[in-house]
Write a structure and sequence with these properties.
This protein is an all-alpha fold and 215 residues long. Helices cover 71% and strands 0% of the residues. The protein contains ten helices and no strands. Helix 3 packs antiparallel against helix 4, helix 6 packs antiparallel against helix 7 and helix 9 packs antiparallel against helix 10.
Length: 215
């Protein structure tokens, strides 16, 4: 499934940071807590690269407990959650993938990507009402997030709820007319406007809640 943006570039940066961390530890110029946190960070990265995502998460959590402001641990931990959920999706174990994202959202309730991906899992699972509910939950946190409406529109379209899909897509465009989805969304609106039953085409005020989710 699609992961975090610029992941390859940032992972390259991580390698550099881990090397630097090793040099710092060897020089003994940091506090005990910092040394231990960086050691857990390095362990977490090694676990992640080896596909041991659950162990990576545990290591990152330990690093954060020791040093709550360790930005790199906060950056890497969601990727481990994404990878673990992706593994479950490939096995069609959607309930476990959903559980992974729920666990992460409990830790980081404002991470839009986690809501996106959990909604995407529900969509793949053909649980359309649940997918819509996830996107709406994030939109309630961040009302101006066009990407949530974009995903919502795609779910409604697959669900064959065309008026709702059009409303979600229109809201998406209204929020960010130049978003990466703009061309696709305008095309979808045009196509869906000729697909929906007669008498139901004036639906600009229907569909998704106005008080709600970008990427």
């Amino acid at each position: 499934m699609n992961g975090r943006l610029n992941k390859l570039w940032i992972l390259s940066l991580v390698v550099v940071c881990v090397v630097i961390a090793g040099l710092v530890l060897s020089r003994g110029c940091e506090s005990k807590e910092t040394k231990e946190a960086m050691a857990y960070l390095s362990q977490g990265y090694d676990h992640y690269e080896a596909g041991r995502h659950e162990d990576a998460i545990i290591a990152y959590k330990k690093a954060i407990v020791l040093k709550p402001d360790l930005a790199l641990a906060h950056c890497l931990m969601p990727w481990a959650y994404d990878a673990m959920a992706s593994k479950y999706c490939k096995l069609k174990q959607y309930d476990k993938a959903i559980g992974v994202y729920k666990e992460y959202i409990a830790i980081k309730p404002d991470d839009g990507a986690a809501y996106y991906h959990m909604g995407d899992v529900y969509r793949e699972w053909k649980k359309f009402p649940e997918a819509i509910g996830v996107y709406e939950e994030y939109i309630a946190i961040k009302p101006d997030d066009g990407a949530a409406y974009y995903r919502m529109g795609n779910v409604y379209r697959e669900w064959k709820k065309y008026p709702e899909a059009i409303a979600a897509f229109k809201r998406c465009i209204a929020i960010k007319p130049t978003g990466y989805w703009a061309s696709e969304v305008r095309k979808a609106i045009s196509e869906l406007s000729t697909t929906q039953p007669a008498g139901s085409r004036d639906t600009g005020s229907r569909g998704s809640r106005d008080t709600k989710h970008n990427y």
